[in-house]
Amino acid sequence: MDKKLNVKFHIFDLEFQPYKEQSDKIGSFNIIKSCIKYINDERRNNRRFVIIDRHEKRDKAESRKLFISSAAFSFPDKMYKCKIHLIRDKSPSFMDKDTLSFESVDILKNKEIVETTHFYIDMDKLSHPTILCEYNSVGPKISDIEYYFRYISSKSVLHISKACKAQVHMEKSAEQVMHSLQNIFRFRFRARPENLPALYRNTEDAFFSEMQALGKLVDPKTIRVDLGFRDQGGKKVVNETNYKMMTTTKRLLNAVTKDITILENMEDFYLEYEDNDGEDKSYNFIRGKKSLNFKCPLKEGKKGQADPKEMFVLANNAYKNYRSKTINSQND
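Structure (tokenized):
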């Protein structure tokens, strides 16, 4: 029996904002085409990848060097097939299973360790390009793709767009939860300490600055908070609203509505709450992304690598089904 890998793709729209003087001449589709042309021209004509360090301006931060190695257009599918890579600062070691010994990757010499994420861009739409992004826990993520295209289209390179924003397809939007929120019964949150400054900048809430202080005090790998606001019997407290936690939660939800890639700064974000109909609800924002899930055959002769041709076919078929259902539900 052939082995297969479980593969997951998330879905998001990428919206560019052209400069005012170009707004009637160029839109998101033309901007992303120009970005891809620049990337491909640099590789073909100048024999170089366009490498961008997302953390270049961060003090004492591990680098996050990203580059797109390929972006080929499939005319029958009206989609770009792309690969984005993350260059790893920290190199792993190889283990010999026979001798149980470890070998440094110094033997790689001038080679780099990279993590790869496949993504596909649907150009057959009316408003903005839709991107299918492979989920890779250690590789480039949605926010990396957003940042990469934002940088290429900005005045730093092409000077054709002043903003770029990813709109992730969710089971339930942060805006829906925020507007229906009447009381908080449970707030669960987990993040790495190095991601807390970004969360504080986006919320300006003391809750996150206090967690930053805790991180500096004891230097943990992750910080987890699990807060309950029910009585010991598990029943909600009648006529008692937790206004302090409501304020913090709404600030965080408001930040997510403005930039949903903020969710990538968190490892867990879960709420139990009362909505405006008086009903108890719960929602996990990290697991709440719309996803395409399937099993993909392995690439022949490659251990642990999905076959890229098969992966594109399977992802595209799953996306067509998803897109058809979405359009039908909007027309109902």
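The radius of gyration is 22 Å. Residues 308-331 form the longest helix (24 residues).
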